[in-house]
TrEMBL record:
Alphabetical keyword list: Hydrolase, Magnesium, Manganese, Metal-binding
Higher taxonomy: Eukaryota, Fungi, Fungi incertae sedis, Chytridiomycota, Chytridiomycota incertae sedis
GO molecular function: coenzyme A diphosphatase activity; metal ion binding
Stated name of the protein: Nudix hydrolase domain-containing protein
PROSITE patterns referenced in this protein's UniProt entry, alphabetically: NUDIX (PS51462)
Record bears the keyword Protein biosynthesis: no
Source domain of life: Eukaryota
Cofactor(s), by name: Mn(2+); Mg(2+)
Length: 241
């Protein structure tokens, strides 16, 4: 089994274990909140100078965008790819895949969806945001647009972020960058703040390569993913190395 296949398998298994446990039950402002969906999208964050023979989970990075300055809401903020679920979308994950293609130009066939992360409200508590853990994989011939929790059987290579040739939507996205898992887990890169005004719920904030501030809902989703999926998968990796 290739190192890429091992990474995908460990992430999938850690996600399945995390989804079997209870998460926070949020109270929304209505019984029928609006629906939105995002991708916690991972790519190979190595470059030609840092790539090694064997891929490890720490080599992955989270793909993030800076929202365009002209947007009416959250202009200039760091965000995961995604948006509102439209009536024409088959389901929430289909909306996240569509929005990712529209925002940064990733071919849906190159998105391997591993499964859902816990939903969380937006700052108004009127919208339920459904995150999904996903990978950008190699050539389209090996990729899958399946929305099941099973990664592609072809065991594709996880795509290098610096090789993606992204096409950004100028009306929606100012820039796109990747934050390496190893850097996100480094306590020296973290500052903490309350989330949703809850003194009992403190989450880290980070800064990107050009001082982009990662905070709020995006930081909450990333922090939860790191704690419940990424770190357990890394622990398994260490135990089996």
């Amino acid at each position: 089994m290739t190192s890429h296949s091992l990474v995908i398998r460990r992430l999938s298994e850690a996600l399945q274990r995390a989804n079997s446990k209870a998460s926070i039950r949020w109270k929304y402002s209505s019984n029928s909140p609006r629906e939105a969906a995002v991708l916690a999208l991972l790519a190979d964050a190595r470059t030609d100078t840092t790539a090694t023979k064997e891929m490890r989970i720490e080599d992955l990075g989270v793909v993030l965008t800076v929202r365009a300055a002209g947007l009416r809401r959250h202009a200039g903020e760091v965000s995961l790819c995604g948006g509102a679920v439209d009536a024409t979308d088959e389901n929430a994950v289909a909306a996240a895949i569509r929005e990712t293609h529209e925002e940064i130009g990733v071919d849906p066939r190159r998105l391997a969806i591993l499964g859902p992360l816990p939903s969380v409200p937006d700052h108004t508590f009127e919208t339920r945001v459904a995150p999904f853990l996903a990978l950008v994989v190699g050539g389209a011939q090996n990729a899958s647009s399946s929305t099941s929790a099973t990664p592609p059987n072809a065991s594709p290579a996880i795509a290098r972020f610096d090789k993606l040739s992204l096409v950004l939507s100028p009306n929606e996205v100012e820039s796109c960058f990747v934050m390496k898992i190893a850097d996100l887990l480094d306590s020296g890169n973290q500052a903490f703040e309350q989330f949703r005004g809850n003194a009992q719920l403190r989450i880290p904030t980070w800064y990107g390569p050009n001082n982009e501030r990662i905070w709020g809902l995006t930081a909450y989703i990333i922090d939860n993913m790191l704690k419940t999926v990424i770190q357990p998968a890394i622990n398994e990796q260490k135990n089996n190395s």
